[in-house]
Amino acid sequence: MQTKIPAGKLASEAGKEADRILRSCVHCGFCTATCPTYQLLGDELDGPRGRIYLIKEMLESGSASEKTREHLDRCLTCRSCESTCPSGVEYAHLLDIGRELCEAGTERPMVERIQRKAMTAILPNRTRFSLLLKGAGLFRPLLPQGLKALLPAVSRTKLDWPPRRHKRTVLMIEGCVQPVLDAGIDRAAAIVLDQAGISLQRTGIAQCCGALEHHLNASEAALERMRSNIDHWWADIEAGVEGIVSTASACALQLKEYGYLLRNDPAYAEKAKQISALAADISELVAGQDLPAANGGGEKIAFHASCTLQHGQKLSGVVETILEKSGFELVPVKGGHLCCGAAGTYTLLQPEIGEALRANKIESLEAGRPTRIATANIGCMKHIESASEIPVVHWIELLAELYEKPQTDRG
Ligand code: SF4
Ligand code: SF4
């Protein structure tokens, strides 16, 4: 694609990067066919190719419009388009630049500004999020529908992890909302990895990996959060942890993006690169281990591959193989490449699209009559759970259950 970005804009890092990405797009439109918002809304401007054009236009004209902002807001950042694109267009990185320009060049209505500020202040901080949920009775009438749906599912149990007894140690990023909503997921990972001779070490800080602020276009806050995390984790990294793992695929993807996002920060670029090189999704870590045999007894599971797992981290099929090897039967799921509508804070900001996508996803997941639905990310889990009759779990919990059974029960 040819571009005519003015020289002044091209001199900036963002301008150069946008130009590089735009020029890699050949305008073929293959991506449009696999875009969930295009499928739902049928408007070219609500598909990747249309959004790419809007960003190009904005860069060339130097002015942002509310219309462009709306179309970019409706993008789930699911990266399904990146999986389809034959030219390797880095759509998500271009979208970040486009969103930042829109944020700077337009003014959102007051309600949206307050909503986004409140989310940025509360969600990335585990203590504040936990307090919010505890005060849910008072706040409930004021909350958006999507957040209300999350409230009943607060995790109240304090769970013991296996003792740290192995030489091999991996740093576990617990993040912000997941331990509040479901403390059992990271514990399940600790149980499974203990079987593989790996101990998990917690970071000791209760904050976001930066993904939530990133999703809310608060890019400076996201970068600050990432720098603060690096400072907190650095002693453990220097002490020689063999990796950094997350059970939330969205957080694992964000860790893998640290190197890219902080590449222009002289003080943090090298460290961020190292974080990204050490980062792993729990599925990658488990897949590479020699685990004792486990037998899921042929239980029928519908697996929902989160977008950050399959499109962001390109880990399609990894969890499915682990589950099948562990004796679970996976039922077919139509449209497995499509987003469930959770997409970080998307479901709170675009509830109608989020709910429509969820309805389609649940229909596909339930079609094979599974006993349980499994996924790889807390956001998808809570979003699907809030409208499904079938129990929803994180896939690592299925595995941990097998290892928690008495030895004689195992296959
Ligand atoms: S990221 Fe997802 S919603 Fe956004 S344009 Fe790409 S496929 Fe469509
Ligand atoms: S598939 Fe790739 S190259 Fe084709 S229009 Fe979409 S982003 Fe551009």
Automatic annotation (TrEMBL):
Enzyme class: oxidoreductase
Note describing how the cofactor binds: Binds 2 [4Fe-4S] clusters.
Keywords: 4Fe-4S, Electron transport, Iron, Iron-sulfur, Metal-binding, Repeat, Transport
Reactions performed catalytically: (R)-lactate + A = pyruvate + AH2; glycolate + A = glyoxylate + AH2
EC number of the protein: 1.1.99.14
Classification via InterPro entries: 4Fe4S_Fe-S-bd, 4Fe4S_Fe_S_CS, Cys_rich_dom, Glc_ox_4Fe-4S, Helical_ferredxn
Positions of the 4Fe-4S ferredoxin-type domain: 16-47, 66-89
UniProt-recorded Gene Ontology molecular function terms: 4 iron, 4 sulfur cluster binding; glycolate dehydrogenase activity; metal ion binding
Function per UniProt: Component of a complex that catalyzes the oxidation of glycolate to glyoxylate.
UniProt-listed PANTHER family: GLYCOLATE OXIDASE IRON-SULFUR SUBUNIT
Annotated protein name in UniProt: Glycolate oxidase iron-sulfur subunit
